[in-house]
Amino acid sequence: MKESTVTARKRGMLDRAFSEIRHFAAYPFNMRVLLLTNMLYAFVLPVVELFVGTYIMRNSSELAYVVGYQLAVYTGIPITFLVNGYLMRRVRIQALYSFGMLLSGISMAVMMSLDRLELGGIVVAGLIMGLSYGFFWANRDFLALSSTDDGNRNYYYGLESFFNTVASVVVPGAIGAFLGATETFGWFAGHINTAYKAVTLFVFALTLVASAVVFRGRFDRPAGERFVYFRFDGLWRRMMRLAVLKGIAQGYIVTAPSMLVMTLVGNETTLGTLQSIGAVVSAVLLYLLGRFTSSRHRVAIFASGLVLFALGGAFNAALYSATGVIVFMLCLVLGRPLMDLGYFPLQLRVIDNVSRREGRNAYSYIFIHEWALYAGRFFGCGLFIVLTCWVSDLFAIRYALLIIGLIQLASIGLSRRITRTLDREETR
Cβ contacts of residue 86 below 8 Å, gap of 6+? Predict the structure, then answer.
């Protein structure tokens, strides 16, 4: 009896898995190709976001270098969005997208090739990574906009966030263990920087596979229209203010885990382990939210992520210890994808609305949105630098996250007003 019950449960789980696969297969072909490409590249992003920061910390011990690198990255992104807008008229969008993915490996290779880490070399590597992100995100956003509609975007971003969260379990844990074992067991003659170079080769291999997948899509090239504008509809100006608030957190959210862990906890192995804690629960939650929620739930999902981020910053400020870092990382693992799941579908819905009313190329909104994010990122990084220079490193690491988390809470009311405006206009 017990054996038949176990067999029935296994069969039920298999049936459920096949049901989800059939559900995925029911979506448009280009959407599925884009999701598969993003799934592969999801295993690159944790390496780029986390371990480049720890590499700089390990080889320079300068917090300002980590933030300087991130500022260089953020400066390269909007400039590349401008260049990409002109290239899209003549170059296949898949080629630009692939080029962005490949550049991430090249940036890491430049960083690892430096005999001595100095600010000039770090800035160059950061600018190259900014070019990578720029080509990647500009084309990824445009393809997401053109391959989805408002009815399936919760599922699209839920599944994409699921991939990203699974990758945040597997990649930091595996690479953190690999880097830790290099020192413990003397691999590569105990040269930790050689291990980082091996990780760079891993990034190259994955970007090549992801590039091959995206070329299977049948994506249309955008119309060769003007895309640089400076005057916009009131609804889009509201969306731009929301983008600035989102950018403020992005300006520090990427570098914060590396600096906190290397300062208060330990080494890369600890970093990988911390990123994995709680991510399994987060991945399942995100998939279910994407699968079963609709546009009316987005503000609540977005607000949940913002509150978690602020709580994590509060615990870090109050405890300022290894325990505080662990709580912050758990809040970040859960909160960051919730913010993205609520934000990105809302952004695309606004673009659909205002581009139709203003009769403009949709890429013009993607382009100017990135500059709004940049303004927020610059403020976020600048806040940390000001706190470091005018107060102390200790104060900046301890309180910057709390300050940013509290500022971010203003996004809840703003996103609610944007959603209400959209609902009113779309029911006319």
Answer: none
